[in-house]
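hey can u check if this looks right to u? its 227 residues, i copy pasted from the old doc so theres a chance i mangled smth
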Amino acid sequence: MPITGCTESAPASIPLTEEHDYAASPLIVVDRIKYETMSREIEELRRQLESYHLTQEFGLQFPSYEHLMAFWNLIQEATSRMVRVTSGQKSLSTSTSTESPVNRPTKLLPVDELFLFLNYLATGCTQRELCHKFNIHRATVSRILVSWSNFLYTLLGSVSIWMAPGRVRANCPTDFSGTYKNTQVILDCTEMRCQTPSSLLLQSEVFSTYKLHSTLKRLLACPPMEH
């Protein structure tokens, strides 16, 4: 007979535990040759992934990180003499500041500024995106882009890109052996569509009557060599 005033309690639940397989061996048997082969494949994939991030994600167009740093080592010494875009403005002002482009502090290290500039050229991202990526002001991004454009144009523009005349003649096709035997370079021009600038003066300079749009004009040159 149930007792008045008392309620029946729910049956207690007993947790179930999984049985241990005492027959299982604690050692894992692995094929050594297969393991070494897979390890080499993993290392190769890791190197390819690093190269992919450098060339695709950041768009730097360098085959590897070593190539990027090799280029940086070539121009690193010259960066100490870089004339930044603000130096000309300060020289024209009435300020008596004697701060030079060499000792002026910058928000980023020079190698990081180069990385920013290459990122901008390869990916075409906006200055607003770059200022968020590098955690700097948008005006600073603009000054870095202009400064590095002028610097690399001057530095790399001084490098001779023309082949020696003797080498050109040695590899010249037979079609040029007659009247055109003294040909050193073949010239051509091309146009690439670009964004229309807001300045009316710049619009008149970049507008193309052939493309009916704003374009960048390029003069191309190649030696007459057999491939």
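The first strand starts at residue 186 and ends at 193.
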